[in-house]
């Protein structure tokens, strides 16, 4: 890591190259010999010899598996950081940067209805009003604001606040290994929450609770003097106190998806989600990889491909993404569960996306879905359509890459301004027109009919199988 950064995260002096970190990795499944060679290659900076560098889904299991506390996941992030500063990112990464006009949030907003847009506007306005308590709506929550339309959140909606301009509290930039960007996000978050006078922050996204509660203070020296809680923690408290009454126990067979950030806080988020499912009258079955051994949903499988894809083609990224997402859904399907349950809006959206494309796996529900149903509500169910909306935004960027040499150039992201909360960049008019047409196609009768869906599913599964055969 360059001298501009304050410290090196990987404790090389503690590492005895035992390989336990990558033996336990649920993605790599390396032998002891291969695992030792892989961690040694990473230490030496020979990333071309490292399977971890090529296939890491940033699930961070290796940190918790390391018997020496050497933090090998942070070594992978260091190597990502070096590659980022050397080469930048391929254009497909623009989807996750709110200060790039091709970002997914602006693209999806074009396809939202008035009720969702009103929620987003109110959340942004609330972020300008000093208050001691905030429900932070979060990065990916803002892709699925319909989740907040039920009555379960009524007590918190007056203090709901959030903006894509907070960069997800550094969740994506940290996973990308973009250390310099994340350092700026830390400063932005410190200033924003300090100016608001926040004393208690309830995070809609468990990943952002982990970032503010553990990752940013431990890794980046972030100073957050307020209490950080997850929305699931608040929901469980309300269930146990009778603030939420379960009038309609669901009787569903549920398998829990433990998101990649649920290992923080000693793994407490994993148990909270299972308790919520039990309160809602659900029976629990476990996937092969669960709790501290759980697989990432697959969304973060995009990350290593951004670092090793020489020409910046989006296609290796998309196939590895689909393969990783489907792997998790295949595990869920093998349990015989009716539902895969998650509390992360990103996992909720992208697991639904792969189910829509491949036809594999049980229905995906969010915590608010099952709690609302158990309380007698009919949740707003828009996630399947929103998954196709996200695909429309991504397809627009793929088309630009295919037909424009300028779009095939790698880029160096502009950091956020730590002194002010910047608005997310709007989608250019030409892109907006294409996204609108693509969304109408994907959500229209030409695609949304049984024959077309079976053909899409068969083709997607064939591509995934071919990819797995080569790797």
Quick tags:
four-stranded parallel beta sheet, disordered N terminus, 19 helices, 471 residues, mainly alpha, 2 domains
Largest sheet: 4 strands, parallel
* Morphology: globular
Q: State mean pLDDT (0 to 100 scale).
A: 93
Assembly context of the chains: single chain
**Widest beta sheet: strand line-up:** 2-1-3-4
Written as H for each helix and E for each strand, in order along the chain, the element string is HHHHHHHEEHHEHEHEHEHHEHEHHHH
Explain what this protein looks like in three dimensions:
This protein folds into two domains: 20-87, no CATH class; 91-470, no CATH class. Helices cover 48% and strands 6% of the residues. It is built from 19 helices and eight strands. The chain has a four-stranded parallel β-sheet with strand order 2-1-3-4. A four-stranded parallel β-sheet has the order 6-5-7-8, with helices on both faces. Helix 14 (314-334) crosses helix 19. The protein is globular, with a radius of gyration of 21 Å. The two termini are 30 Å apart.
Compose a concise summary of this entry:
The chain is mainly alpha-helical and 471 residues long. It has helices at residues 20-23, 32-43, 51-55, 61-65, 72-87, 104-109, 114-126, 171-175, 179-196, 206-220, 231-241, 268-279, 302-308, 314-334, 345-358, 367-374, 383-403, 429-442, 450-470, and strands spanning 133-136, 160-161, 200-203, 227-230, 253-256, 283-284, 339-342, 363-366.
